[in-house]
Amino acid sequence: MPATLGVRVLLVSSDIQTIDILCHSMEKMAMHVEVCPDIASATRKLCHSKFEAVAVDFKESAEALDLLKKLRHMTSHKSAVVLAILDDNDQMPSAFRGGASFVVVKPLSQAALLRTLRVSYPLMLHEKRRNLRCPLQIPIYISMGFRPESRVTSVNISEGGMALADAPALQVGERVALRMTLPGTQAVAKISAEVCWSDNAGRVGVEFVQVPSLVREQLISWLAHRLDESLREEIVPRS
Q: Are 202 and 86 contained in the same domain?
């Protein structure tokens, strides 16, 4: 399974023992862990990559709190699950005020850490599913205003939008109507969308504006099934 389909965690720590126990516990749960040794490199990484969770060592508590503040102002990470790794219980109030979702206190116990990860994992999965762009190649019929309907091909799809190939010339901000049959369904879905990016190769990205409730439920169910299926393959590799 491509690594991008699993839950991704950014671990911010320079402590070898902390890194070892976090990575060992998280990899047991099919989480993909990337390690940054300091706040500066973590900030750069967050600006260019998407993570469902961030685990921050509070060894330097002021810097850690500053990272949490920046994180909550990033559109792509404002809903990420944050695990604060504390030196002692006295740091707990400031960590929660700063935006931590969960905390663990050193010395880290693997049993306690696994309990925390099991509780936080569904939230990470929800964040993953909400942003998951799942590869999907199906015909899409797109119309703009009074122009004739065009047939294009989808590239990927998420809860909030999709990428298209071989699309007609479209302007960012233009409203379009999409007609498609979602995988696993027989009903034709009609969705109103807005163009959010385009390039010179006929590829465009659209953000869904109006999605019928039944269509949204079907899409969420299909994405969740794809994610669950992929994660099961990770946890129990095929022989």
A: no
**Residue 157's CATH number:** 2.40.10.220
User: In the chain, which stretches have pLDDT less than 50?
Assistant: 1-4, 237-239
Reading the block at residue 43, the tokens are 């900030």
Q: What pLDDT, in 10s, does the model give residues 74-122?
A: 877 888 999 999 999 999 999 999 999 999 999 999 999 999 999 999 9
Q: What's the pTM value of the predicted model, to 2 decimals?
A: 0.66
* Contacts by residues 176-180 (CB-CB < 8 Å, ≥ 24 positions apart): 176/142, 176/143, 176/144, 176/206, 177/142, 177/143, 177/144, 178/140, 178/141, 178/142, 178/206, 179/140, 179/141, 179/142, 179/143, 179/149, 180/138, 180/139, 180/140, 180/141, 180/154
Does one domain contain both 158 and 46?
no
CB 92 within 8 A of CB 86: yes
